[in-house]
Design brief:
Elements: E1 4-12, E2 16-17, E3 20-21, H1 24-31, H2 40-48, E4 59-60, E5 70-72, H3 73-87, H4 101-108, E6 109-111, E7 115-117, E8 125-135, E9 138-149, E10 154-161, H5 166-175, E11 193-198
Antiparallel strand pairs: 1-10, 1-11, 2-9, 3-4, 5-7, 6-10, 8-9
């Protein structure tokens, strides 16, 4: 089976926030149980590490065996789905022509690396912000807290497509990263990035 590959390097120009729960029990019971494959459940829980227990309400970055913060392959695919869903409404976009986009991304577009290290200089900081919600009991406000990696972080990964034309969709979705990025609170501009194809 032939694969059409593209090596991608992205560099953030806004801080990126962690998305994994720092509460290992919550992660184990809910988030990891919804991972795409059962084999990843123990792997993901182990990647959180014991230090994460200190702040159970935070969202953090999982760590690899070397202690580097990572994102998972399926987070990139999730970004592709989110981008395609939005761009389907844009007249003249390539994504507007993709039928059954979720099945296409799930079944024909893959990220080669399982764990993708986030390379950056500086320290992991913390971003706190209020969360407001309208409920039947009135407005509720809570404080959300996330680990934050500074702008200038670099993430490199390989996209593999089983259909050559899908590479053009991937390029369009990556271009959308300048407007809507990766990670937590991306609707505020967090995690926005520029990308290049590495030949």
């Amino acid at each position: 089976m032939e694969k059409y590959t593209m090596k991608v390097r992205i560099e953030t120009f806004e801080e990126m926030l962690g998305t994994a729960s720092a509460n290992p029990e919550l992660h184990d019971e809910y988030i990891a149980s919804n991972a795409p494959d059962a084999m990843s459940r123990e792997e993901e829980v182990a990647a959180l590490g014991t230090e994460a227990v200190i702040e159970k309400s935070m969202t953090i970055f999982p760590k690899d065996a070397q202690g580097r913060p990572i994102i998972w392959d399926y987070q990139i695919k999730g970004f592709f789905k989110d981008s395609c869903k939005a761009l389907r409404k844009v007249t003249g976009s390539k994504s507007a022509k993709m039928k059954a986009y979720k099945q296409e991304i799930d079944g024909l577009i893959f990220i080669r690396e399982r764990q993708i290290p986030i390379m950056f200089t500086g320290e992991i900081a913390r971003c706190q912000r209020p969360l407001r919600a309208q409920t039947p009991q009135g407005e509720r406000v809570a404080l959300a807290s996330s680990e934050s990696i500074p702008a200038g972080a670099v993430i490199t990964f390989t996209v593999e497509c089983l259909v050559k034309e899908d590479l053009d969709f991937v390029r369009e979705w990556l271009d959308y990263g300048e407007l809507r990025g990766l990670g937590q609170w991306r609707n505020s501009g967090k995690g926005r990035f520029r990308w290049e194809e590495i030949k």
